TrEMBL record:
Its EC number is 3.5.1.12. InterPro entries: Biotinidase-like_euk, Biotinidase/VNN, C-N_Hydrolase, C-N_Hydrolase_sf. Belongs to the carbon-nitrogen hydrolase superfamily. BTD/VNN family. This is Biotinidase. It comes from the Eukaryota. The gene is BTD. Keywords: Glycoprotein, Hydrolase, Signal. It comes from Physeter macrocephalus. Residues 56-341 form the CN hydrolase domain.
């Protein structure tokens, strides 16, 4: 939810920041030369959303009341998808907690949760099959937005999965509740989902029993990785996921509270893109009174970002990204293999440890390695 640093992740944070500073320094001094390639491109968008929040997130409400609030946020999402579609966007990312808000208890968030079937077990298009599962109204709207915009759509919502007493991890109320990212293809099919592993004092949600290392394929840019907010400061899933050499793009819903000197949202996002040599699509919540702003589309060498502590409005960022061979388009100090080797030598938590210790529009700008 709100993301600030814990001791277990401090060294990774410092490392990412160091990569950012070092890379920027080398770029300034040595101009960080990169090969030019004539390659295809794709158009991406991230939306920094000023979410409509529950006036009392601790109060118990009905499913009908919860849907009324969530549909107000989804109406704004739909407006942004329409604008993005007019600009030729092929993938759009929305922030963490953007649909339901935050500061719920486990009980008070329950009416806001959609049932989440496993995309690995069930092929499902919620827009075309709205009555296949109960309590999936939010998933249905997101699916139909993807169809309407003819684009891949990434969003974050709360989900629920029933469990049985025979399951030793099953909570007393008989259900798991997860902070979940979902991906829909341009035809509305549910492509994949990711359950947030590293919760930050989110009593409403459960930690998944196993870490999700989720990737999904697109016809326009190949393989994308996905994780959420606080996850970026941990070995699992972020670092392990990016050891896959085919992952050259990351989608990143977040609800990030800026904390100086090392945890400004843009700083962390850009540092990550540089450190791992990936294109990083980060969508943050917009609540300046809470210190929450900072979204961007970052390549290893360039960024197009939004950070505004004054305007109360959301902001849509659209950028055109060149498709290039990452290993051949960034210099050695930005090479993902070198970075992951360096991370392996750091005293990070071991694999066996639990990682828990009016909307403005920016016009399309071409981002490339120059």
């Amino acid at each position: 939810m709100v993301c600030i640093m814990s001791g277990a992740s401090r060294q990774l944070t410092l490392f990412l920041y160091g990569c950012c500073v070092a890379a920027l320094g080398v770029q300034a001094e040595e101009h960080c030369p990169a090969e030019r390639h004539q390659a295809a491109q794709y158009v991406a968008a991230v939306y920094e959303h000023r979410s409509i929040l529950s006036p009392n997130p601790l109060a118990l409400t009905s499913r009908k009341q919860a849907l009324e609030l969530m549909n107000q946020n989804l109406d704004i999402y739909e407006q942004q998808v329409t604008i993005a579609a007019q600009k030729g966007v092929q993938i759009i990312v929305f922030p963490e907690d953007g649909i339901h808000g935050f500061n719920f208890t486990r009980t008070s968030i329950y009416p806001f949760l959609d049932f989440m079937p496993s995309p690995h077990l069930v092929r499902w298009n919620p827009c075309l099959e709205p009555h296949r599962f109960h309590d999936t109204e939010v998933l249905q709207r997101l699916s139909c937005m993807a169809v309407k915009g003819e684009m891949f759509l990434v969003a974050n919502l709360g989900t629920k999965q029933p469990c049985h007493s025979s399951d030793p991890g099953c909570p007393n109320d008989g259900r798991y509740q997860y902070n979940t990212n979902v991906v829909f293809s341009s035809n509305g099919t549910l492509v994949d989902s990711y359950r947030k592993q590293n919760l930050y004092f989110e009593a409403a949600f459960n930690t998944p029993p196993e870490v999700d290392h989720i990737t999904f394929d697109t016809p326009f840019a190949g393989k994308f990785g996905m994780f959420t907010c606080f996850d970026i400061l941990f070995l699992h899933p972020a670092v392990r996921l990016l050891r896959d050499s085919e992952v050259k793009h990351v989608v990143y819903p977040t609800a990030w509270m800026n904390q100086l000197p090392l945890l400004a949202a843009i700083q962390i996002q850009r540092g990550f893109a540089i450190a791992f040599g990936v294109n990083f699509l980060a969508a943050n919540i917009h609540h300046p009174s809470l210190g929450m702003t900072g979204s961007g589309i970052h390549t290893p060498l360039k960024s197009f970002w939004h950070h505004d502590m004054e305007s109360p409005e959301g902001h849509l960022i659209i950028a055109q990204i060149q498709l290039e061979d990452t290993a051949g388009s960034v210099p050695d100090h930005c090479n993902k293999a070198n970075i992951t080797n360096a991370l392996s030598a750091m005293p990070l938590p071991s694999d066996s440890l639990d990682s828990d210790e009016k909307p403005a529009v920016t016009l399309i700008s071409k981002i490339s390695f120059t």
